[in-house]
Amino acid sequence: AIAASRKAVQLAPQNWRLHNSLGSLFYNLARYDEAEEELLKAAELAPDSYLVYQNLMGIYFRQNRYPEASAQLQKALQIRPDPSLYSNLGTLLFYQGRYQESVAAMEKAVEMAPNDYLFWANLADAYQQVPGKTSEARSAYRRSIALLEKLVARQSTNAILRSRLAVYLASVDRIEEALKDLETLAALESDNPDVLYDTLVVYEKANLREKSLPALEAALNAGYPINEIQNDPLLVGLREDIRYHRIVMEREAEGH
């Protein structure tokens, strides 16, 4: 896909959509410097495209560059107040520990797009961190699961959808179903960093630390950003394990 996209960019270097597409491919492979280069070119060619700024926000977020991520997100929102942007804003606030503000942004996204499973799941994550919102969190997870199961039924080999479903099932204590989904994922042999991270989260929710530690290594090796793992409130217990710190220190020593 990258080879084809590069060829397309060479043939039409003034087409911002091609630069955006190539940048998105690099992003999915955790090649963030190359992704940023292509998306900055796209932004020069299409300064009125909210999508490019949204994608740039994602890169900066993954690199723990929160001020730059916020700046790109504000540019996107000025162009188009899209529900996905409000969800992105909520995620940005979430990983900074600003949970009440995150809830407000996520609620706005759900209000604008009530049939999007990911918005409901993100809202549930935020509710979960606010005292007194446990019931709302579980309700939002259940709404997300109902919407996502319909998609999985049509796209049974989509690893990202299945890994997300496993996380949401585990979040409402449907652990056996979540672990069964992980077995399906193993058969798909996905090396997507987000899928591997979801696998880690499910194992932690299932109290299977001996499996979550190898999953942590696999996610990091695939390029999942360490800053998200360090800031994710779902992984507090993992971060208290000395073996977690050994894995992180080994990667830092290797220059990752």
Condensed summary:
With 256 residues, this protein is mainly α.
Describe this structure as you would to a colleague.
- It contains 16 helices and no strands.
- With 256 residues, the chain is an all-alpha fold.
- Helix 9 packs antiparallel against helix 10 and helix 10 (159-171) runs parallel beside helix 12 (193-205).
- The mean pLDDT is 93.
Measure the end-to-end span.
25 Å
Low-confidence stretches: none
SS-based class = mainly alpha
- Number of DSSP strands? 0
Q: Figure out the total of helices.
A: 16
The biggest sheet amounts to: none
Helix content estimate? over 70%
User: What is the rounded Rg?
Assistant: 18 Å
List the secondary-structure elements in sequence, H or E.
HHHHHHHHHHHHHHHH
In percent, how much strand structure appears in the residues?
under 5%
**Mean pLDDT across residues:** 93
- Describe the global form: globular
Indicate the topology.
Elements: H1 2-11, H2 16-28, H3 32-45, H4 50-62, H5 66-79, H6 83-94, H7 99-112, H8 117-128, H9 134-154, H10 159-171, H11 175-188, H12 193-205, H13 209-221, H14 226-231, H15 236-239, H16 242-253
Helix pairs in contact: 1-2, 2-3, 2-4, 3-4, 4-5, 5-6, 6-7, 6-8, 7-8, 8-9, 9-10, 10-11, 10-12, 11-12, 12-13, 13-16
Name a few traits of the molecule.
single chain; 256 residues; mainly alpha
